[in-house]
Amino acid sequence: MRQPAMLLAFSTLGACATPLPPVDQNQAWVDFYTITPGKLVMAERLDGKRLTDGRFFQVTPGKHELVVRFDYEIYAGGFNIDPTERTCYLTVEYDGFQAGQRYRLEARAVAMQPNARLYNAERQVLAEQRMINCVP
Questions:
Q1: What is the C-alpha separation between 31 and 53, in angstroms, rounded?
Q2: Phi (first) and psi of residue 6, to 5 degrees
Q3: Cα–Cα distances in Å, from 118 out to 9, 13, 39, 86, 92?
Q4: CA-to-CA distance for 76 and 112, rounded, in angstroms?
Q5: CB 3.0-4.6 Å disulfide test: which of 47, 60, 70, 127 passes with 107?
Q6: pLDDT tens for each residue of 48-107
Q7: pLDDT by residue (tens digit) across 36-57?
Q8: Alpha-carbon distance 127 to 108, whole Å?
Q9: Of the candidates 81, 50, 86, 53, which has an alpha carbon nearest to the alpha carbon of residue 66?
Q10: Contact by Cβ (8 Å): 111, 125
Q11: pTM of the predicted model, to two decimals?
């Protein structure tokens, strides 16, 4: 019983160590960033299709809908001093992706509310989330 469980654990960890694919100059590349230390931002869906590698988006030029998963902690206040983990799915739509360009999608929680912005290489805001779906 232990061998199958250990094999599953090691195969799951192996995905984290897989190198990123080479950058395709015919596509746009979207990196992720969060100012919330130790929190998670991952690619979830591209144009409605679930992704197998959540570390980045690599998209063709033009319009795309990006959905990212953003996990962060919230503090309920009152007598509860322990934080609660919150998972949100943020949808960002942008119609001007250009081949060979790098973009940065930043997620943050301001006053416990999630926010996502898409920036170009010059740090100009190109788009903000248009939809937020959080649990709990």
A1: 13
A2: -70, -40
A3: 34, 29, 18, 21, 8
A4: 10
A5: 70
A6: 999 999 999 999 999 999 999 999 988 766 676 777 888 999 999 999 999 999 999 999
A7: 766 899 999 999 999 999 999 9
A8: 14
A9: 50
A10: no
A11: 0.81
* Token pair 């195969």: residue: 11
Q: What angle do CA 112, 43, 57 make, to 5 degrees?
A: 130
Q: Which two tokens stand for residue 8?
A: 């599953």
In single-letter form, the type of residue at position 71 comes to D
Q: Is there a contact between 32 and 107 (Cβ–Cβ < 8 Å)?
A: yes
Residue of 99, 96, 100, 75 whose CA lies nearest to 85 = 75
**Contact, 58 vs 29, CB < 8 A?**
yes
Let me know how many helices (H) and strands (E) the chain has, helices first. 1, 9
Largest CA distance in the chain: 54
CA atoms of 58 and 102, how far apart (whole Å): 9
* Distance between CA atoms of residues 121 and 136, nearest Å: 34
Secondary structure (3-state) at 17: helix
Length of the chain: 136
